[in-house]
Amino acid sequence: MRAPIGNFDQALPLPEVLDSLVPPVAAAVRGWRGEVPAERLLFVDTDPAKADTAVFVETYGADLEKASANCVIVAGRRGQDTTLAAALVPATTRVDVNGVVRRHLGVRKASFAPHETAVSETGMEYGGITPFGLPAGWPVLVDAAVVAMDHVLIGSGARRGKLIVPGAALAELPGAEVLVGLGR
């Protein structure tokens, strides 16, 4: 199958590549209950050595610059309590951690979670974290601009490979909360 965006050799429906996915992402695909059928959630193989944005876009297609989203793990603190959440924004923007995230989570301080925390808590590789397969109960903050995209390129949970999904599917993730202005 041809990928709807980018220049990839092949795009495969996620249910057909479960053994290639990191365990939490594979589990999320197995349990997918969204209105967007799981067969429309696609995996494309990519070279992890070409992950730098400029090189990636040059290799896999200029259209990806505006059709990509980044998923980052944020930590919000209020007193001794820490809340971990995911934030998904267009790749051309930055997460408004100190504004939208902090207010939405109702915390006094918000920041990007430490690298080690993001990896150990998600079971995913740094640089490949995806909103699919995050721990139960985590808020998944999704910028409305990402949901509006026809197709979005996001991490696969590993440095190798990416997911291409309809933006509407991201609003159907467990814990998803669609926010305007999350990326700025």
Automatic annotation (TrEMBL):
Protein name: YbaK/EbsC family protein
The species this protein was found in: Streptomyces chisholmiae
Annotated ranges, domain YbaK/aminoacyl-tRNA synthetase-associated: 50-172
Superkingdom, natural source: Bacteria
Stored InterPro entries: YbaK/aa-tRNA-synt-asso_dom_sf, YbaK/aa-tRNA-synth-assoc-dom
Coiled coil: none
Lineage: Bacteria, Bacillati, Actinomycetota, Actinomycetes, Kitasatosporales
